[in-house]
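S., here's the first fold you wanted:
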Amino acid sequence: MLYVCAPDELAESQSRGFVLEGEALLVVRKDGCVFAYRNRCPHRGIPLEWLPDQFLDHSASLIQCATHGALFLIDSGECVAGPCAGQSLQSLTCKENREGIWVDI
């Protein structure tokens, strides 16, 4: 597993983007849990963020694609609105401990 960041660098209801070993990914903390996905919309294969580290909609309850507004559930990556409805973001195995947040690419 690869180190992403320290636990205190990802606050509740926040998202961050990272590039590890050439792979773009995003991590989101929701209800105390951390979720990780490849930063690639299933509709066009393009990055999701609006601005650096801005992956969430205005309510911070869904991941939103900046290009066409598709909305994805944070805890599963499933698209619930937009042109890729029914598809999902590619999830990454993620764990958190005192030393950091870790993902398996």
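And the second, which I think is the more interesting of the pair:
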Amino acid sequence: MDEVLVTGAFGRVGTALIEHLSDRYSFDYLDRVESADHSSITADIAALNDIQPAFNGQDGVVHLAADPSTEASWDSTLRNNIVGTYNCLEAARQAEVESVVFASSNHVVGQYETELAPELYQKGHGVVLDHRTPPRPDSFYGTSKLFGEGLGRQYVENFDYPKRFYVLRIASVRSPEYDHPYGDAERGVAAGEFDRGSAAYRRAVERMKATWHSRRDLAHLVDCCLSDESVTFDVFYGVSDNATRWFDLEHARSVVGYRPEDQADEWNDPP
């Protein structure tokens, strides 16, 4: 696969792909804001006619464009996540794009964490959520991602294109400055939300040590999907090989060859 369109390219996930995969793929970038560093197509994912030309000639699409907040309003979620994902798939169908990699979210199953935390952040919790686990979204955002998963399955099973749809239920990806298991805790300190060493700080570390998905592991997982031709539809969890994670890695390992390099438990202090 050579030509790949990345929607929502200049957010946390998109910049990780640019950083780690731009030497492997000929990326085109679509975002509603311009970048000073990369030429791109500026368009709103909610406007099908505006985004459709960007899909022509593409072998694959990595669909990241969305309102990423669990606090997003229904109106924003409807426009950016639900209509936007429909537009992405419809544009891919019209342009005969082979493969779509969809940035879903751990919030599709987020209610399990709501129910089981904070014990879920400790070793020995015994919880494993995999591709067969019934969804339990925790927000309009989580529900919108579940909609996107279902719509992708509908497209690959009912239309000629796209032929493959990869769902990535991504956990905690952060900006380069905070790309480590202490990232959320240190960001909280920088924002004045709590002090380093406080109970809130320790709780943020415990959660991130379970859910961290390093930027290079994320890019590797996307690469595994873009390189694959065996899947019609499947669901994989996006997380590094953390000792206290509750998201399954074995399915991604066996199906697309995902081999994460990073482990949160190797970190005892922030950088």
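Why I say that: The chain has a mean pLDDT of 97. The domain at 3-266 is CATH 3.40.50.720 (Rossmann fold).

Talk tomorrow,
H.
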